[in-house]
Amino acid sequence: MASRSTTQTSQPAPKSPFFQQRDALVGEIAISLENVLQNMNKLNRSLEGVIAVGNEFGAVEALWSQFEGVMAQEPEEDGKEGGVEGSGEEEEDVESGGEAEKGDEKARGR
């Protein structure tokens, strides 16, 4: 009986070419996925670094925004205080007078 057990021991059957190719492709896919995971981790660290640097400039950006707001208000305030309003009214009078003259010319031409 002992001779039967030795003959019945299963030896690995030779794999068909399909299974060999499948195993090779699965191994390549596993290696590629590991590389993708490593690269995604590197990208994540880089993005975190970029965000950290960007956050450091938050105070500077706020200061420049305030400066821009102050500089934008200056011309408006100067224009209201000075004689700019009078010159604007004169321009309106000249424009309306020019339109009246055009209307008179049309009336004369008829």
Structure explained in plain terms:
The chain has helices at 2-8, 17-56, 58-81, 84-109. By secondary structure, it is an all-alpha fold. The chain is rod-shaped and about 90 Å long. The mean pLDDT is 75.
Task: Describe how the helices and strands are arranged.
Blueprint: H1 2-8, H2 17-56, H3 58-81, H4 84-109
Structural class: mainly alpha
Number of helices: 4
> How many β strands by DSSP?
0
Percent of sequence in beta strands? under 5%
What order do the SSEs take from the amino end to the carboxyl end, as H and E?
A: HHHH
Radius of gyration: 43 Å
Average pLDDT, rounded to a whole number, is 75
Gross morphology: rod-shaped
Largest sheet properties: none
Distance between the termini: 135 Å
What share of the residues lie within helices?
Answer: over 70%
- Unreliably modeled segments: none
Short key terms for the protein model shown above:
110 residues, single chain, mainly alpha
Summarize the structure.
The protein is mainly alpha-helical and 110 residues long.
